[in-house]
Write a sequence for this structure.
């Protein structure tokens, strides 16, 4: 088990990581390039991240999310709206934190090592849901309000 950051250290790490992401994204308008950068930098900034990536709203298949840029083990390719933690967040357009994914009804197990999860909706400047950002940990109850606030700020700054 890796060493855990306390809340203050974790919050400071989100602030630093947000600055790094903003600097790298400066001047880049391509959405996939932006998503790949956000997933990469965050994945390597935090030890408690096991899988880090985006599921995009598929404009060709309404009601489905399709895999986007990610880091980690092989992800499921498609998730219907309403299914699993990602689908629940997409429907509600709200962040979802799940301490024990195995106790979450309809959880989609892409990797059996996944134990807890946070999913943040990605809403663009027009107010449209374009994706969800999903982070899994291989330990239970690894995400809290500090992760939510840090991630929502980064997602808003990068895609809002
Ligand atoms: N566990 C997710 C599916 C995506 S993966 O974990 C990469 C869910 O239930 O939404």
């Amino acid at each position: 088990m890796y060493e855990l950051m306390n809340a203050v250290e974790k919050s400071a790490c989100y602030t630093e990581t947000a600055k790094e992401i903003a600097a790298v994204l400066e001047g880049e308008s391509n959405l996939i390039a932006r998503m790949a950068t956000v997933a990469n930098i965050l994945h390597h900034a935090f030890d408690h991240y096991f899988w880090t990536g985006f599921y995009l709203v598929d404009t060709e298949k309404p009601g489905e999310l399709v895999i986007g840029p990610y880091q980690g083990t092989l992800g499921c390719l498609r998730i219907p709206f309403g299914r699993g933690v990602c689908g629940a967040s997409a429907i509600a357009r709200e962040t979802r934190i799940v301490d024990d994914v195995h106790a979450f009804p309809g959880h989609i197990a892409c990797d059996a090592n996944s134990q807890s999860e946070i999913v943040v909706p990605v809403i663009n400047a027009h107010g449209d849901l374009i994706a969800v950002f999903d982070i899994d940990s291989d330990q239970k109850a690894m995400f809290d309000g500090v992760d939510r606030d840090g991630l929502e700020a980064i997602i808003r700054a990068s895609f809002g």
